[in-house]
Specification:
By secondary structure, the chain is of the alpha+beta class. Helix content is 38%, strand content 24%. Strands 3-2-1-6-4-5 form a six-stranded antiparallel β-sheet, with no helix packed on it. A hairpin with a 4-residue loop joins strand 4 and strand 5. The longest helix is centred in the middle third of the chain and has 28 residues. The radius of gyration is 20 Å and the shape is extended.
């Protein structure tokens, strides 16, 4: 089995390098806007740069999340108003947390990350990334916060 603690420590160097790159080029990248003067090749290069930067930022968020310890564990339920709650406290839209599910392919329970979707008036929020047929009531959940 892979030494996940060692791997996490190694990823700190990747995160640091990402931060340094993003800090150094942040203002220049923010000034890049399609203005009709780019060649087709330059347009493609700019598109790829934006994608790489997005991936770097996402990678940093995942590494940060991984480094947090679970702060609260409890049971998910749906409030009378349809909100998703952890031990009776509504979980805000987009707040990332974990739920314990049975994975048929693995034949065991696993923790997986999810978050509550935005819901317009009259809509019922769901847990993003989970099949909508999954009943959220009674799921074990845990929160990690910075």
């Amino acid at each position: 089995m892979m030494d996940m603690e060692r791997l996490f420590e190694e990823l700190q160097a990747v995160r640091k390098a990402n931060d340094e790159f993003l800090k150094e080029y942040h203002s220049e990248v923010q000034q890049l806007e399609p203005d009709g003067t780019l060649t087709a090749e330059e347009s493609l290069e700019q598109e790829m740069l934006f994608e790489v930067i997005d991936k770097m930022e996402r990678m940093n968020r995942v590494i940060d999340y991984w480094g947090r310890k679970p702060e609260k564990e409890g049971v998910i339920s749906r409030g009378a108003d349809g909100t998703i709650q952890l031990d009776g406290t509504p979980v805000p839209a987009l707040e990332e947390f974990e739920v314990l599910l049975y994975d048929k392919d693995m034949g065991q329970e696993i923790w997986t990350r999810t978050y509550v979707s935005f819901a317009l008036a009259g809509e019922t929020p769901c847990l993003v990334g989970l099949d909508k047929s999954v009943d959220v009531n009674g799921l074990r959940a845990r929160l990690r916060r910075a």
